[in-house]
Each structure stands twice: as structure tokens, then as C-alpha cells.
Amino acid sequence: MPNPLGFVGAWLDRADQLRTDPQAFAAACVDPRARCLALDGVDFVPGDGGGLRWEPLDPADDRALMLLGRDDRGIPYFVREAPRGARIDARSRTVMRLLPLLSPQDLALYGGARSLVDWHARHGFCAVCGSPTGIFRAGWGRRCGGCGAEHFPRVDPVVIMLAEHDGRVLVGRQRQFPPGMFSALAGFVEPGESLEEAVARELFEEAGIRVSDVTYVASQPWPFPSSLMVGCRAVATDPALTLDETEIEAAMWVDRAEVRAALGGDMEAPFMVPPPLAIARYLLEDWAGWMP
């Protein structure tokens, strides 16, 4: 079954054995069949058919190659580090408009490549001693040239959740959202905190509600720049809201009929739903029993 979530379902074998075998990785880098993902900074360059553009390896390009994986024929696929001084826009509006051009599989592959390139662009110096770092492990790590510390690409966990009360769910909006759009509430998981605790804390901090019975629904990588969205539901003990207006501009409780109207694009619906790639939309579809 195809996964309805965006950035999920990459079609390459990640080939971890090549990451830890320098000789095998070096051989992959000179494989005449190898292909490299064309990027503009961290934005993808559309191919002729509207998907990703894959190019032969250019021996004149001295930027480090980072292994994305191999296909079922053993062909290696790479992405290069961003050019020195390149502008990295973690929330490029241009690429957001182009994402619907990609197949679900290419979208997932691009998301991983984008996050990897972005991480390298922001970690040129050691967090321990401040010395320059260099790429190793086929692009899946950086090693400090001073103290020898090793650093690896990180993923930031984010809980995103629907609180439910008496047949309704809570949706909210931030000021930067498009007019009329409401979404599930979300927030980063803090050190020393479980996912369930993060859900309860974020809902109390942003909306002033207490919840119980936190359950997991689904997860989604979100490469802007590198988050793992963990979708959940929770049951609110009281529907009274006290908003943190520095985070949430407005919030409201909506029932299934209202959510279905919004998902169906009804102009009379009380809010506009997030775009199809967002896990917030999936959470609303799942709760409302909506079949797109």
C-alpha cells in the first residue's frame, strides 16, 4: 500500500556497509553507472519529466560526494555537499511550490538528501573545540581535525497532535499561516522528556488544556531542515482554552462534519486544512475517517 505521508518511502537501499568500508565507497565513487542528484543549494532541480534530475558524476567537481544508497541493480546514487558560500534557505518557498511535481518515492529521497546537505552546511566546525571538521563515513558523519570528535547528522523530534474532547478536535493557527488555515498543534521534544510528556506539555503551554490517554498515530520526516514529526492524539479533560498568543494566534474546537467539509474544500467550512504533504492533514483525515 502506498504511504499517504509525504517524504516517506525512499526507493534506495541505504547501503550502510559502504559507509563503513572506505575501499568499497571509493569504488562506488568511480562506478561509471553512478548518478548524482542535481541541487541548487538544497532545492532540487526539476528533471525533464518533472521529477528529480540525476546526472553522471563530474570528475571536475571537487565537492565531497555523499552516498544516498544503491538501487536494486547496485547502481550508487550520490549527492554533493553544497558549494562553499551557497545560500541555504531551510524554508524555500520556491521548492515548496515544486514538491507536488515529485513522485512519493522521489519526494522521500529528496527529503533525506536535502536534510543531509543542509546539516553539513551548518556543521563545518567542531562543537567541542571549534576546529574545522571534515566529511567521513560516506557523507554520514564529520570528524574534527583538532580533537578527533565525531559528529553525525541529527534529527529533531517534534510532536504534532490533535486533542479531542466530546467529539471535537482542537486546531490552531500561527500568524505566518495562510489566511484561514488551521492545523494541529506541535512542538519540539525537550531533553529528558518522553513523547507523551511532550504532547501534554505543548498542549498545556500553547492552549492551556490538560490531556490524558496520549496515543501514537504516525510519523513523518520533515526536511525543513531536519525534523521527525511524531503524530499523536490525546484526550482533553476540559475544553476551556487559554492561548499563548506568542505561539498561537487563534484556536478552536471543530467536529467531524466541519473537518470533513474543510478536507473536501467546502467554501463554507470554518477553516482551511494544511496541504496534502503535511502530517497535520493526515491526522485530520485519519480522525475524521476521510478518504481523499
TrEMBL record:
One of its GO terms (molecular function) is metal ion binding. GO terms for cellular component: cytosol. Gene3D superfamilies: 3.90.79.20, Nucleoside Triphosphate Pyrophosphohydrolase. Residues 153-285 form the Nudix hydrolase domain. Keywords: Hydrolase, Magnesium, Metal-binding, NAD. The keyword NAD applies. It catalyses: a 5'-end NAD(+)-phospho-ribonucleoside in mRNA + H2O = a 5'-end phospho-adenosine-phospho-ribonucleoside in mRNA + beta-nicotinamide D-ribonucleotide + 2 H(+). GO terms for biological process: NAD+ catabolic process; NADP+ catabolic process. Its EC number is 3.6.1.22. InterPro entries: NAD-cap_RNA_hydrolase_NudC (IPR050241), NudC-like_C (IPR049734), Nudix_hydrolase (IPR020476), NUDIX_hydrolase-like_dom_sf (IPR015797), NUDIX_hydrolase_CS (IPR020084), NUDIX_hydrolase_dom (IPR000086), Znr_NADH_PPase (IPR015376). Its cofactor is Mg(2+); Zn(2+). Belongs to the Nudix hydrolase family. NudC subfamily. This is NAD(+) diphosphatase.
